[in-house]
Amino acid sequence: MEIIQNLFDEEFVLMSSRIIVALILSGLIGLEREINNHSAGFRTHILVGISSCLMMLLSLYGFDTYFEKYGDVVQFDPARIPSYVISGIGFLGAGTIIVSGRTIRGLTTAASIWAVAALGLVIGIGMYKVAILTTIIILLSLIFLNNFEKKISKKRNFISFQILVNQHMQIRELLAKVEQFDVIIRKLEMEKDDESDRMIIIEMESNETLDKTELYHQLMDLKQVKQVNELD
User: Fold this and answer.
1) Model-level pTM?
2) Are 119 and 49 within 8 A, CB to CB?
3) What per-residue confidence (pLDDT) applies to 202?
4) Could you tell me the domains of the chain?
5) How far apart are CA 139 and CA 29, in angstroms?
6) What is the three-class DSSP state of 120?
């Protein structure tokens, strides 16, 4: 009985409760990312949240025995370890950012990872109320603002075509044909399909009057174009 009491002492219960809160709150944010099929999801956010909480607990309680012995001659800043967490978490967020042509993806997920690290730190120090409030704000931002952004994107009417061409195709000829339809080209990607053919992906912004069927036929009329597919 005494061993159990020593194991589950007041300090251990306090630290365990903070880790569990970090698990729940960071898990909620990670779940939203997982549902929307982003690169860093449920498990990643939980690991970041509870790990940063653990680092905060280490900073607060990990050196108590040391200070009891040398407290008269040693000074310690409890913010030192958390500062390394905040600066070091950037490498993990950078791993979720994908740059493709003019398009950048993963910035929101990288920001959510950084936010979860901050949540873990404030939970580790015992600031439960502000952590819960911040989690609610983050979730509302991710869910509702994401829907808002989608509505804006629909109004702007983005369309994408995947075009298979042979090696003799002049890109400027293809772009000139596309631009005849009064569209704005937002992204252009090109990769080799085999030794002779190339795959071109064009993302463009158009108005509601664009005749996609006519654009498709105009592209297929080009001699060097073999196949045209509209991407979802």
Assistant:
1) 0.52
2) yes
3) 84
4) 2-154 (no CATH), 157-231 (3.30.70.260)
5) 6
6) helix
